[in-house]
Amino acid sequence: MYTLYYSPRACSLAIQVVLRELGQNFELVDKKDVADFSAINPVGNIPVLVDETKIMTEGVAILLYLLHKHSSPMLPVDPQGYQSAVQDMLFANATMHPAYSKLFFIAQNVNDEQVKQDMLHAASARINQLWQVVESRLAQNAFLGGEQPSVADILLCVYSHWGSFFAVDIVIGKHTRAMLSRIEAMDSFQRAIAAEQPHSSAAL
Ligand SMILES: N[C@@H](CCC(=O)N[C@@H](CS)C(=O)NCC(=O)O)C(=O)O
User: Fold this and answer.
1) How close is the Cα of 52 to the center of ligand 1, in Å?
2) Are residues 67 and 89 part of one domain?
3) Same domain assignment for residues 15 and 43
4) Rounded to an integer, what distance in angstroms lies between the CA atom of residue 55 and that of residue 131?
5) Tens digits of per-residue pLDDT, 31-71?
6) Which residues, including other chains, have CB under 8 Å from residue 56's CB and lie 6 or more apart?
7) 20 lies in which domain range?
8) 3-state helix, strand, coil in the chain (%, to 5)
9) Hey, whose CA ends up nearest to atom 12 of ligand 1?
10) Residues 119 and 60 occupy one common structural domain
């Protein structure tokens, strides 16, 4: 039995989707309901996954742990397939996620409205450049990993919602929008979103 610490619609959503894809039971704990979250993760970030007594942080490390432990085809075992899957996960988690994180940082820390807007625009230009890279990858395949959803697609789908929190123009190409729609339609994704609602009675 796992415990997943999360915030609604944050990057922890991808961990929950993968837990569901792997058929695992888990308890969800909203970070805001924890009196002293720094005792769980001194960095202050979610996701945090607890497996029995083992406390795990950093999204990709958590995902790799789960995919290894439950022998998922979403993590190929052949060296080339493994490398590609991890590269795509890190593109999402270590390149796209930080690009979006800049929007949150600017919105929270820049007071001058014109400067804030200029910085948000610059940050969104970088995000759009990254979505173009995704778009060119998806010209041939339904998902980044091929014809089946990969963990990287799930991560990107979670991040793709964050642009709407800001007055920025995020441009996502048609192949990418089709991929994101397919991920959003997954039962695991829908159930994960429902379970994050306050006082949700959705079955975990
Ligand atoms: N490298 C970290 C980044 C995690 C991260 O930035 N999480 C954000 C939410 S998406 C966070 O916890 N922000 C602080 C907060 O929500 O209080 C990981 O992949 O786990």
Assistant:
1) 22
2) no
3) yes
4) 33
5) 999 999 999 999 999 999 999 999 999 999 999 999 999 99
6) 48, 49, 50, 62, 65
7) 2-73+188-195
8) 55, 10, 35
9) 45
10) no
